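From the thread on structure requests for the teaching lab: each student submitted one protein with a one-line request. Submission from student K.M.:

"Model citrate synthase (unknown stereospecificity) from Gordonia jinhuaensis, tokens only."
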Amino acid sequence: MPSTAAVPSTAAAPRSPTTSSIAASLWPRLTTLPATRPRLRLLNSALVCLADHDMSAGAVAARVAASARGGPYAVIGAGLGALDGPVHGGAATLAQEFLRSALDDPRSAVLATRADGRRVPGTGHRVYQRRDPRAEVLRSAMGQIGGGDRRVLPAIDDIADMVAEQRDFVNSDMLLAGIALRFSMVPHAAETIFAVARISGWAAHAIEEYGEAPLRFRPQGIYVGARS
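Reply posted by the TA:
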């Protein structure tokens, strides 16, 4: 999602890898490794892939705020509030923690997780039944660049093979975790990338919602308590 400054039409827009995109601004806040062009392209791909995903919890929250005519900051705040927690945005952090523990022995990590009766973080999806196309795009993009922790991609592939035996699949959270760990990013980096990506999507949802009649989201409650 490039974001270059406005320039006169007769001049060429500068395209410095360190100043011309959201990815370039975000990278140094996540890791001390150099922001090379291939790495920024990878991060930008992640931001684009995760920008929007239909009416997810964060998108609904953002649209509710916009429907009540909340301003842009309120809209984004509502989206971030819904994103928090282990079943939405926090799932990327769980995937990052799991993948970190699995880098040296993915098979044992998967088996131990299953033995505890837990699902492997970064696998499956509420919408997708057989594959997460976003994960496939990011896996391909990661394979096209070098550098970083060489254990990450083989570990992800081993995990993908193991969960496929039970008709499961790795999702975009696992690939965000892979980006974070491969390039020595800070804890919660995967979730941060996810949140920054979604902000642009929520802004688009808000623009649409501002064009609708206000207060569209007004469900009616049904009392289910005791009656005298």
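TA comment: The chain has ten helices and no strands. The radius of gyration is 20 Å.
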